[in-house]
Amino acid sequence: MKIVCISDTHSQQGELFTTSSRLKLPEGDLLIQAGDLTSQGRPAEYAAAPSWLGTLAERFTHGAVVIAGNHDFLAERDPEAFAALVPPSLTYLNDSGVEIGGLRFWGSPITP
């Protein structure tokens, strides 16, 4: 399985991932977004990031796994609200695990 891992996109998805972008994602079977979807954790930032990631995940055979990062403050303040913003097509790991393609993944977004 080919895994593509990104992180620290900090609400720059429009700038980073357009067709004319300087960042090109390779093809793969699974995308992992390992945190920091947002810069400041503001509600408006969460409106765009998860839906964009859901669209991006369509390019991967096994979709995408999302783990909140230290800038995704909503995930710490209100984990249920953050999880509700993640489209059902994505796998959100919050101190939980999942098996995909015979591999096990664990996500722990808030780790002291």
UniProtKB/TrEMBL annotation:
Domain Calcineurin-like phosphoesterase, first and last residues per copy: 1-79
Pfam families named among the record's database cross-references: Metallophos (PF00149)
Transmembrane regions listed in the UniProt entry: none
Organism of this sequence: Deinococcus seoulensis
SUPFAM superfamilies: Metallo-dependent phosphatases (SSF56300)
Name of the protein described by the UniProt record: Calcineurin-like phosphoesterase domain-containing protein
